[in-house]
């Protein structure tokens, strides 16, 4: 099969002919139909992920068709169209037993702990636990962008954020994650304030339902602006970027007893940011994370997509081939655009 392979971190990525992998007894072999390109794939290629064993195939946001099942798989069959969350549970640890596969102690992450979806075929483990059947109305391209940024934002807004209609939500950072959060919060009846440094991204945010946008490069004080507009602060605020400043602002712009959700990954120098803990205590703020979403929780989100309440396809900026992706991946940190790039020809 064809796959995009790198043999060294920060080395050349090449489309090569490699053997088709064999699924485990609890797993499946998928023919990949579409896969999203995500900054996490770039982090993996740079060498930021200790789980990656070289040579490696990236890719963790995908939709595909089952072409082979392991003997222990009960709920899925050859021909099923499926997708997966980027974190796969093991089914046997404490977290999985409590229904929290998204923080499984022995998690598998396609494109990190094993070869991913920048290939014609890939395997997935513990299929009965981790796979999600796709309704006919949701096409492969749309489905392929759900498994990482979109589900993490959905869980942030709906589950962790427990958002109520009419509440104010501030979203800091309007890339794929932030725009997803804006769309989901808007569909849930909230009033969204979008913050970014890029006017094009803010325009997209407005199109997706933000009631007000703030360009943080031009703003004298983002926190003051949010507090003024919301008459006291946001009920829910999301750092969708993963940066010391956006994390700080997202906590500082909350109203009393408000909730901050960290969605943007904190890496490198931003790993341990300083936060206004004095405010967290005095105003009883809550700070939570969101790390993907369990497969069994997809139902509500898929229904909202089927009914047109959520339209993740609006986040797709372009579709490319596997051959084109190998030149793009090393440059992903320089992407100026906010939309998502999908590989849909292999
Ligand atoms: Zn991703
Ligand atoms: Zn587990």
TrEMBL record:
InterPro entries in UniProt: ADH-like_C (IPR013149), ADH-like_N (IPR013154), ADH_Zn_CS (IPR002328), ER (IPR020843), GroES-like_sf (IPR011032), NAD(P)-bd_dom_sf (IPR036291), Zn_alcohol_dh (IPR050129)
Annotated keywords: Metal-binding, Oxidoreductase, Zinc
Pfam families listed in its UniProt record: ADH_N, ADH_zinc_N
Cofactor: Zn(2+)
Domain Enoyl reductase (ER): 11-343
Coiled coil segments of this chain: none
Domain of life from the UniProt record: Bacteria
Entry's family note: Belongs to the zinc-containing alcohol dehydrogenase family.
Protein's name according to its UniProt entry: Zinc-dependent alcohol dehydrogenase family protein
């Amino acid at each position: 099969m064809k796959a995009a392979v790198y043999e060294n971190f920060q080395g050349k990525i090449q489309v090569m002919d490699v053997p088709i992998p064999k699924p485990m007894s609890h797993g499946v072999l998928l023919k990949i139909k579409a896969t999203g390109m995500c900054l996490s794939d770039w982090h993996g290629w740079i060498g930021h992920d200790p789980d990656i064993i070289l040579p490696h195939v990236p890719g963790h946001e995908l939709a595909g068709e089952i072409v082979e099942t392991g003997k222990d798989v009960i709920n899925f069959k050859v021909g099923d169209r499926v997708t997966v969350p980027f974190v796969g549970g093991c089914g046997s640890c404490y977290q999985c037993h409590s229904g929290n596969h998204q923080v499984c102690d022995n998690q598998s992450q396609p494109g990190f702990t094993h070869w991913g979806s920048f290939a014609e075929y890939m395997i997935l483990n513990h299929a009965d636990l981790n796979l999600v059947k796709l309704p006919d109305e949701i096409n492969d391209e749309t489905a392929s962008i759900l498994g990482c940024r979109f589900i993490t934002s959905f869980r942030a807004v709906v589950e962790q954020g427990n958002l109520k209609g009419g509440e104010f939500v501030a979203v800091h950072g309007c890339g794929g994650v932030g725009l997803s959060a804006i769309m989901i919060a808007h569909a849930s009846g909230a009033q969204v304030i979008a913050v970014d440094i890029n006017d094009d991204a803010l325009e997209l945010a407005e199109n997706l339902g933000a009631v007000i946008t703030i360009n943080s490069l031009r703003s004298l004080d983002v926190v003051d602006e949010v507090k003024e507009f919301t008459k006291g602060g946001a009920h829910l605020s999301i750092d969708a970027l993963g940066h010391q400043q956006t994390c700080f602002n997202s906590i500082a712009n909350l109203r009393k007893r408000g909730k901050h959700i960290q969605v943007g990954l904190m890496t490198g120098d931003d790993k341990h940011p300083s936060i206004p803990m004095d405010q967290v205590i005095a105003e009883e703020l809550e700070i939570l994370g969101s790390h993907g979403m369990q497969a069994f929780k997809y139902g509500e989100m898929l229904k909202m997509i089927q009914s047109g309440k959520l339209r993740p396809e609006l986040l797709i900026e372009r579709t490319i081939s596997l051959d084109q992706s190998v030149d793009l991946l090393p440059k992903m940190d320089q992407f100026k655009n906010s939309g998502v790039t999908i590989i849909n020809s292999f």
